[in-house]
């Protein structure tokens, strides 16, 4: 998503994961965040298997690829735009 918005001429791109959905987000989390509290929001199960999977997922930085509800803030780079008079 970052590359697509960059190719479209946007700058200052900030991508967030909206939990549980983008329509009614309770949490808006930067997808680059490494905060331990965020892990519990995404993978909330307390079973041993899920705790191990959660640890592996975050070591491999996988959660930012499996989200389905994103909020994107970006600016259009107007300095590169050529205006016709």
The coarse silhouette is elongated
SSE order in H/E notation? HEEHHHE
In this structure, how is the largest beta sheet organized? 3 strands, antiparallel
Tell me how many strands there are.
Answer: 3
Mean of all residue-level pLDDT scores: 76
**Tally of domains:** 1
- Give the termini separation: 33 Å
Strand order, sheet with most strands:
2-1-3
Global Rg: 17 Å
Tally of helical runs: 4
Structural class based on helices, strands and sheet pairing: alpha+beta
Which regions have little confidence, pLDDT < 50, spanning 5+ residues? Answer: none
| Residue fraction in strands | 15-25%
Measured as a percent range, the helix fraction is 25-40%
Write the layout of secondary structure elements.
Layout: H1 2-7, E1 10-19, E2 27-30, H2 36-42, H3 48-59, H4 63-66, E3 70-76
Antiparallel strand pairs: 1-2, 1-3
What labels describe this entry?
85 residues; alpha+beta; 34% helix; 25% strand
Could you explain how this protein is built, in words?
It is built from four helices and three strands, in the order H-E-E-H-H-H-E. By secondary structure, the chain is α+β, with helices and mostly antiparallel strands. Strands 2-1-3 form a three-stranded antiparallel sheet. A hairpin with a 7-residue loop joins strand 1 (10-19) and strand 2 (27-30). It starts with a helix and ends in a 9-residue tail after the last strand. The mean pLDDT is 76.
In short:
By secondary structure, the protein is α+β, with helices and mostly antiparallel strands.
